[in-house]
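ok posting inputs for the pyridoxal-5'-phosphate job
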Amino acid sequence: MNHNKTPLWTALQSYAKDEITPFHTPGHKLKPGAFISLEEVLGKAFFALDPSDEISSVEFNNDFETALKQAEGLAANLFGAQDSLFLVNGTTGGLHYLLMPTTGYVIIPRFSHQAVYSGLMLSEGREIYLPTSYDLEWAIPLPPSIEQIEESLKGKAKQAIVLTHPTYYGTVPDLEKICNLAHKNGTMVFADEAHGGHFAFSKRLPQTALECGADAVVQSTHKTLGSFTQTSMLHSSNSEWFSKIVQAKSVLQTTSPSLVFLGVLDEVRRVLASKGVDLMERAIELADCCATQLSQIKGVEVLPKNLQSDPTKVVFSLRELGITGIELEFLLRKDYNIQLELSDYYSVLALITLGDTEESITRLVWAIRDLVQRISYENCRPLPKFKLNIPDLPPNILGLKNAFYTDKEIIPLQKAKGRISGSFLTPYPPGVPVIVPGEEFTSDIIEYLLWCSHINWTVRGLMEGKSVSVLKENNAFSRNLR
Ligand SMILES: Cc1ncc(COP(=O)(O)O)c(C=O)c1O
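and the output
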């Protein structure tokens, strides 16, 4: 395939060059007009490249629909898929299209992104949760083990497994083995590869989910590969399921996707096809250099390699100096004008991509050295251990979808024992829900959440006055479904 071509990006530019008098949407009519500040910041070109896709025309050489299909075909070829789709609602949208057609049991790790849960809410599928195990030293969630997957596949037929590949921290499950195991059981494997779009461009990174045998994957091209925010790609190697995905997309996606965003995905693909390997090699070298230099600073710990298969995610901690990751993120922003990707109790994550330079790495390392020097060793004590005594998964009474459609009321958490949750309650970080809609509040869960709140650990979903959303009792709909 000729990867120098950019069918969509070229078609868009050609429409802009024609300087047509537009009596069509969008309302800005392809020029800034009264929007002076937008022109100053974005320039004229951004407007000219933003026609709606409804004016697609074969006769006049701006057949955006065909151009998009060709662009997606080139992406499929580059990423080793049978079919690909360009997405304008991020990996969130892609996971929704992937999961909406499910009708059977779907296995998901409990720490899955909320888009996996909401995808299942849109479907006829029924979720089966894999409890989360943690690395206790770093308090980070780990991908499910082969044994966990083996166990979950026993019994009733399972339609699919959805795995996060990699986790936010760069840890990957043994996906090749999992795919073999699942396929033997007639179960599809879908990968949430939101943070792994760059894997295709280096042998020093984990294999891609498609290489491991996944049926379909969704990647946030915007997160690790440089396209505009909200643009993602879905790649599939399962043509039967792909036709269902396309159907779901036609139901859920806007009928006016941004052609600029889709065109940018096309151009990003062209650049990656010719330079992706070199760009990624450089990013990995920068990340290695960053991790090495950080680990040489007294008081700084870097996440060990056995926990981190993706070197571009540099996770480090100043816990020996008594500084939480959350404090570190704040100090770097306040005193050094540096913003990190993520922080938790122990650690922070600096994401290194093809957009980084030696200067950005030098700045970060310099800032950490400076910060460590400012801290007086005599006065600092290591951080106390983080208690991760998370209770067992509570009884599951109703599926996510049925819980979503059932009327709710707000009550004090203390009075919730035996009631069915109407929302997710998620201590953050690490962002693993303790209870999800449709599950029953147990004494353990209530005590744990009260403790989290007592120590000021943010619990997403816990409302003012420590109240929670529960399903209304005497709700005919929910009773029928029990
Ligand atoms: C693991 C994971 N999956 C999916 C998503 C959703 O991706 P997007 O922002 O592209 O919709 C995210 C976003 O942070 C994520 O972390």
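notes: The mean pLDDT is 94. The pocket of pyridoxal-5'-phosphate is lined by residues 90-92, 113, 115, 164, 168, 192, 194, 220, 232 (CB under 6 Å).
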